[in-house]
Design a protein that fits this description.
three-stranded antiparallel β-sheet, about 25% strand, alpha+beta, five-stranded mixed β-sheet, about 250 residues, single chain, about 25% helix
Length: about 250
């Protein structure tokens, strides 16, 4: 049976906090210990907070391209400057929408930069994605394995909008100890037909499942434990989910 356990006893995460220690304490508070095949899903926001990925917009000077795109999108030019600095390409810019390819390869709104639920310091802060979300997941897993050496996975999740569909859903932008992508090509279906194109985004599925309890607003649930899955595929990072530019069918 698949179960999803929200982790609530974490509180406001600050730059420099030992996030692994906070997560371990939250697990114990919930009466949980990490077991083999568990998946610990940690929202990007608290990973970025702990890693100090804050930028004060007061110190950002927008360039000419940021000013041009700000006029098109009707967004704060300073925010647009940060988006450009975090991106390798602008995919779409229309009023109130700026979609870019983050330097990690993920295509997302505003390069994943967020200003919600990041505290009330009084400054005009923006929060960037982790420098390397796969590396962040690996550091968390290695730290937690010193407490529970059980063979579990860690995912870093973020919420993405999707073309042609309303609403956001959680996806995996970082992962360690878990097969984020499972390639089923070459295996038979129930009728013996060989699968030719099927690849399973297990990391995104797990992140989306965790999103049912972490939420998107004021829920205050920044992590969740998924229990009941198992896998026999070698782990791969969330970067495996990113389609290469050469296979982009819509550009």
């Amino acid at each position: 049976m698949l179960t999803i356990h929200p982790l609530t006893a974490i509180g406001e995460v600050l730059p420099g906090d030992d996030l692994a220690a906070l997560l371990a304490a939250a697990l114990r508070s919930a009466g949980l210990e990490l077991q083999r095949f568990d998946i610990l899903v940690v929202t990007q926001k608290i990973v970025s907070k702990a890693e100090g990925r804050f930028v004060d917009l007061a110190g950002v000077v927008p360039g000419a391209e940021a000013m041009r795109l700000a006029g098109t999108t009707r967004k704060d030019p300073r925010l647009v400057e940060l988006v450009l600095a975090e991106s390798s390409d602008v995919v779409r810019a229309v009023p109130h929408v700026l979609i870019t390819r983050h330097r990690s390869g993920h295509v997302m709104a505003n390069a994943g930069i967020d200003q919600s639920n990041i505290g009330s310091s009084g400054a005009e802060l923006a929060l960037l994605l982790p420098e390397d979300a796969d590396a962040s997941a690996q550091r968390l897993r290695e730290a937690l394995e010193r407490v529970w050496p059980a063979g579990f996975g860690v995912l870093v999740s973020d919420s993405f909008g999707r073309p042609w569909r309303y609403g956001v859903t959680n996806v995996a932008i970082g992962g360690s100890g878990f097969p984020a992508l499972i390639d089923r090509r070459g295996t038979p279906d129930r009728d013996g037909r060989i699968l030719e194109v099927t690849q399973v985004a297990l990391g995104d599925m797990a992140a989306s499942a965790a999103g049912l309890v972490t939420g998107e607003g004021a829920e205050g649930v920044p992590a969740a434990l998924i229990r009941g899955l198992s896998w026999d595929t070698a782990p791969n990072p969330a970067a495996a989910l990113v389609r290469p530019l050469g296979e982009d069918l819509f550009r």
